[in-house]
Amino acid sequence: MHFVARLSWLTMRRLVALVSTVIFVDVMLFTALTPLVPRYVDDFDLSKTGAGVLVGAFGAGAIVGGVVGGIATAKLGPKRAVVTGLLLLGLASFAFAAAETAEALVAARLLQGMSSTITWAGALTWLTVRAPADRRGELIGIAFGAAVFGAVLGPLFGGIAGLVGVRLSFGVVAFVAFACAAVAMLARSTPGQPLSTAGLSRALRDRRFLGGLWLNALPAFLFGAIVVLGPLALDSGGWSTLEIAFVFLAAGLLEAGLGPLVGRASDRRGRLLPIRIALVASIGAAIGLAAATAPLSVALLVVFGFLAFGSMYTPGMSLTSHRADAAGLAQGLAFGIMNSSWAVGELTGPTISGALADAYGDAAPYLVGAALCASTLLAAQHVTAGRASPREA
Fold first, then answer.
1. CA torsion, points 199, 201, 206, 210, in degrees to nearest 10?
2. Considering only CA atoms, which of 371, 339, 366 is closest in space to residue 354?
3. Domains of the chain with bracketed CATH
4. How many CB atoms lie within 10 A of CB 188?
5. Rounded distance, CA 194 to CA 333, Å?
6. What digits encode the pLDDT tens for the residues 317-341?
7. Nearest to 325 by CA among 131, 147, 116, 188
8. How far apart are CA 159 and CA 201, in angstroms?
9. Do 21 and 127 meet the contact criterion of CB atoms below 8 Å apart?
10. How many helices (H) and strands (E) does the chain have?
11. 0.90 surpassed by pTM
């Protein structure tokens, strides 16, 4: 029995490593655009609204790919969904490398977003179906830590791409995505799960399941604002592309280490406590960013914002997964819906923030984000006051 348990854990560790690598590559490409935003604004004469559309195009593609990827994961199995998403990601990378107009860049970002949510639905389902229920939050936290590490290196990669050439850099990423797809094809598969309209109906009536979805949309909105306005504020303060990249590198490194800790805390203490702490910190970060004017202050608050906003993701994903089990909803479809909810935040965050900044100044979108966090905190307090135990929440 001891040998069987050890073999099972080794197999689980290999799966965690594979899922983490896949998510790492996917997110690295997503965040690589961040330090390149000022460059494309200059090259294509974009306003802040135009910059928001470019960044938010990823979210528009992810809205389409989220539910589609969830259904495909449930019907075909997570392994096939991961391979399909990675192949599309490679094609999107080639398209981004070859783009010569703003419209072509937006189209490439749309395809990136679609491929990303298909990959995530498959990868997270693959992990949670095989993971012990009492360690699900921790393992999701490890995978999310890999995602954050990809987010860390993405801006650095984008900064290097600005120096050595976008076509060469994104072409290399495309080949890496294809290589990951080849490795995923060799891994042990997990069968699909039956789709149930009754399970979907129960989940969509479950306030905690909906709360898990919101806790993926809200930080995406906040990150959308910070990714558009942060680099532009630092650029206007005289900071170079590489300096901007290193700010986001530092922010992401700290966030990457926080993910597994938040996941472990949500397994042991319940999900409400880390959610409430993250919301309070996010309110402070958003208000601070609204008031900051000096480049150094903006840089420090970007780092703090990453820690605060990112701390919502792991308990939010864990909550979505557990409530899907309770409702009888296939994990693949649950994560697909979650990806689409994240994509709504990813789409509206940069686009609305860019438009608000153009009309009312950079403080406006941050204050909107702070108000959303405050409203969510009040809702979380209401859950605490109810009869549900922290672990059930």
1. 100
2. 366
3. 2-385 (1.20.1250.20)
4. 11
5. 10
6. 888 888 888 888 888 788 888 878 8
7. 131
8. 45
9. no
10. 15, 0
11. no
